[in-house]
Amino acid sequence: MRIAICDDDEWELAHLSGLIAEYRLKRGINVDCRVFHNGTDFLCEMRGGEYDLVLLDILMPGISGLQAAQELRELDKDVKLVFISASPEFAMEGYSVEAYHYLLKPADAGSLFPLLDRVAGELPMQPEQGVLLKSRDGITRISFSRIEYVEVIDKTVFFHLSDSTVRDVTAAMGDFERQLLDRQEFIKPHRSYLVNMNYVQAMDAGCIVTASGCRIPVSRLRRSQVRDIYMDFLHRAETAASGHDTQLGEFSRNPEQLGELWRILLVDDDPEERIFWGDILRSHGCIIRTAENGDDAVLLMASWRCDCVLLDVMLPDRDGFSLCEALHRISRTPVIFLSCVTETDRQLEGFAAGGIDYITKNTPAELFWAKVETRMKLAASGRTRYCHGSLLLDLAGRKVQVDGKELCLAPTEFDILLLLMKNAGRIFSPEEIFGMVWCGQPWDDGQMVQMHMSRLRRKLEKACGHHFIESVWGQGYRFVSEDA
Q1: Which domain holds residue 472?
Q2: Which of 103-107, 146-150, 396-400 is predicted least confidently?
Q3: Is residue 160 very low, low, confident or very high in pLDDT (cuts 50, 70, 90)?
Q4: How many Å apart are CA 234 and CA 237, to the nearest integer?
Q5: Residue 131 CB neighbours (<10 A)
Q6: Separation of alpha carbons 79 and 471, rounded Å
Q7: Residues 153 and 92 in one domain
Q8: What span, in angstroms and rounded, lies between the C-alpha atoms of 409 and 456?
């Protein structure tokens, strides 16, 4: 079933895309879904006959859903049009374009799934989908489900099937690559191979073993990506089999408690940066999905639940701060900014946009991982506040209060206080504090730590009558409570 969604609200687009992804998994139906952010983009793509079902927001700036439907109906008399709206008052107008249904926002599985079932049941019966092979002997259709793997040698493409037969055709791999990779079960581990992951028996760093025992090489540059895609494929298969709800919701699971791996969405337009940071995260056992722009990130969030988003600030289609706000309208998944922009005012802008941390790209690998892991654990546990007597530190809002009144701290002072408060009683040397707060900058013999520590203690003393931070001669600093 081919579906298009047109809505100017990013949350609605992501929400509907997520519901359709859930429907595809639960029903086992192949559904191709495309999204559009406005009526102009939608109509520019239309030629008629591309879609079986179109979900149109009836109220959009510029070309409204009703206007888009009128133009589309001239191109396609058979497509099923469904208007989506927060109000039923426009329902009667849908009859002018022979609307199939009128869906009230927010849609849910109870309202959308029966509609999709009805549309699917009314579509003409289609033969099982597959690839067409044209040779001197005629035309042969091979269903996707029978293909174990595809191999190209010279100018011949070989289709190895699940019944051990092989079909070949004189062609290039590119003639079939797009058609197969558009399906979620196929993966490209090597430039000469495509593999159906339903037939993967085992996988290691260098090869894939299929059900028939064939060993498919995995190119060195694609190993991390292939591993992530396959693990995500297994996760989705297990989710569908167990009937777990895959809709977007609150961030509530703790992978360490469930024996799972951390799942991270890495958003960066630089492929080298995606590889570098992704490899660090994978080395710590994380499952990584990547996006190179904001639109891709929004769509991924709709169909893939992750534990954290690592977000670059400078993206080609929008800045990371506005994207962070858009992602938080979809899900409360924590966002950490990862950027080469180091200016203090830009970091403050990141926290104001809803980021829980801001990591600069000059941060050493192990410190980067320590920061990411700590933030994810805090988010998973729900621990976002630290309180000692009259002093309250709110991690989510990046605020410090004394007896309910806000205490103004510089970002660096906040980071120092957070480090000491959440490890109350532990002594940190100046070198440790410098490494964790200043993220890999050259060691200055403790001058920066001493200066900021002095300012922080004066502010605490003035506001509370107690500076909370104790100097331990020859060792460093530690946080102590008021009555210690």
Answers
A1: 385-479
A2: 396-400
A3: very high
A4: 5
A5: 19
A6: 73
A7: no
A8: 8
In angstroms, the CA 283 to CA 261 distance is 12
**In sequence order, what E strands does 199-342 have?**
200-203, 207-210, 215-217, 263-267, 287-291, 308-311, 335-339
Residues 118, 155, single domain; the answer is no
Domain membership of residue 389 (yes or no) is: yes
pLDDT tens digits, 326-383: 888 777 788 999 998 888 888 888 888 888 889 999 888 888 888 888 888 777 665 5
pTM for the full predicted model: 0.42
Residue 186: what residue type?
A: F
- Cβ atoms of 84 and 56 closer than 8 Å: yes
Which of these three, 80, 98, 122, is where a domain ends?
A: 122
Give the pLDDT confidence score for residue 250 in this predicted structure: 35
Supply the pLDDT for residue 311.
94
Pair (298, 372) in one structural domain: yes
On whether the CB atoms of residues 81 and 72 are closer than 8 A, the answer is yes
Return d(Cα 385, Cα 422) in angstroms, integer.
9
| Three-state secondary structure call for residue 3 | strand
By mean pLDDT, which of 22-26, 353-357, 408-412, 437-441 is the weakest? 437-441
Handedness of CA 212, 238, 306, 256 (dihedral sign): negative
| Residue 415: Cβ-neighbour burial (10 angstroms; 0-12, 13-18, 19+) | buried
Count up the domains in the chain and report the number: 4
